[in-house]
Amino acid sequence: MAFYVNQLNENGDFELIDGELAELYPHLDFKQLAELTNAQYQEFCERNNGNTKFINGKFVFEEIAVDLTALLREQRALMWEKIKQKRHDNLRGGVYVKSIGKWFHSNDESRQQYTFLRTLDTLPPNLMWKTMDNSFVQVTKAILDELSLQLVLDEQADFTNAERHKALMEQAESPLDYDFTTGWTDTFSEAINE
Fold first, then answer.
1. pLDDT tens digits for 110-122?
2. Residue 53 is inside which H or E element, if any?
3. Which of 11, 142, 168, 187 gets the highest tally of CB atoms within 10 A of its CB?
4. How many alpha carbons lie under 13 Å from residue 50 in its C-beta half-sphere?
5. Is the pTM of this model over 0.70?
């Protein structure tokens, strides 16, 4: 199988033509084209990046400059999004109320309900709440206060941890390989799997 180079201009632009498809080029005189050796064709296949020229019977391979700074910025931005997502998910993985030894839901809907309950002067009598282990507990103002305070403390701890991971990840040579799994507050699923 032979391959040919049809020189298009003095700038080195060319088209590569498969000799087996010569009938598709009736206007070309193949005796006027440069026939490639197997070595030239192999080198072209291995090194062509779209910027290759053909000058004086030889391929000139132009390297594509990679903007490493831009690549690093993109990688850091991607990892920062992953860290923020971990923080978001972690803070919705439950909140532990130590005084009663129970995990409460901490998703957005539950947080709204806790906020609403805190606006009430008095809680409804015998207010029962389903916890993450599917048991029910009676919620009092004291439990609601402890739960709310723990939500804030966990949020601040995970915010600080995310910022710590961001700073370390930005110093890493390879941001995509940075491990940001340490230092987060516990979640219900982690607690029951210990």
1. 999 999 999 999 9
2. strand 53-55
3. 187
4. 2
5. no
